[in-house]
Every structure is written in C-alpha cells, then in structure tokens.
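User: Round two. Same drill as before: sequence, then structure, for each protein.

Assistant: Same drill it is. First protein:
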Amino acid sequence: MDNFHLTIFNRWGEKVLETKDQNEVWYPWKDQKTDLPEGVYFWILSFVKQTDEDMDGILEEQEINRNGYLTFIK
C-alpha cells in the first residue's frame, strides 16, 4: 500500500488521530494526551494499492477510500 492516510474524529468533529504510517499502533487509553472517553468515533481511511498488470505489463494503481464508525469501550 502506498499513500496510506488514516484520520479519526470524535463526535464533535475534532481530530483525535492522524497517521500516514500503516504500521502505527494506536492505544487511545494509554497515551496521556489521547486518553479518550468511551464513545463513537468516525474514521476515514485512504490508500493506493497496486493492482494486476495491464496488457502492457504496467502495474495499475487504484485509490481506495473508506470510512465508518468505531465504538470505543474501556
């Protein structure tokens, strides 16, 4: 994957996480500055993935955009 970008927002639309590192692990209850309350959070994920080669042998790229909700319970 290339151009990975993940953003998580709280219910007021405030950004609580933004990362471009697909290997980053997020523990919202361990970090003092992100000790988040229980609740529903909105996430947006985008990345580019390489698909199969086309007829000319060139790798194609496809941009993927997804979003959804997560419920955080301590």
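Second protein:
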Amino acid sequence: MLSAGNDLHAFREISVHYEHRERNYVQAVSFVEKALASVQLSPGQQQELEKRLAQLRGKIAKLEEKNEIDE
C-alpha cells in the first residue's frame, strides 16, 4: 500500500511527465489538483504544489494568447 508521501511523489512525477514529455499542460494540472485534493500535505508541500499549479496555468494562458494572436 502506498503512503501519502508516495502518493504525492507519484502525482507530482506524473504531472511532470505530462508537462515535459507530452506537453499536455491540462493533464499536468489535473494531476496537481488531484494531489492537492487527495493527499495530506505539509504547509511546504501545499505551497510547492500551489506554485506548480500557478506555473502550469501560466503556461496554458500563454499558449492560449499565442493561439489567439496566430488566428
């Protein structure tokens, strides 16, 4: 059985995979949100995940802006 720490690590690594390998930022956000919702977090872990979520949402916003400009 996985511990909360392992769950957090798994969610984060899957999120990184989707961000870096697949370039699927929406899916990466989904896994960060799952980690925030389902794992008991320390304040530092919570802050790290919220920062990651903000960064991913920023990337999505930039891509959406770029697509609007290109059209």
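The CA atoms of residues 15 and 28 lie 4 Å apart.

User: Perfect.
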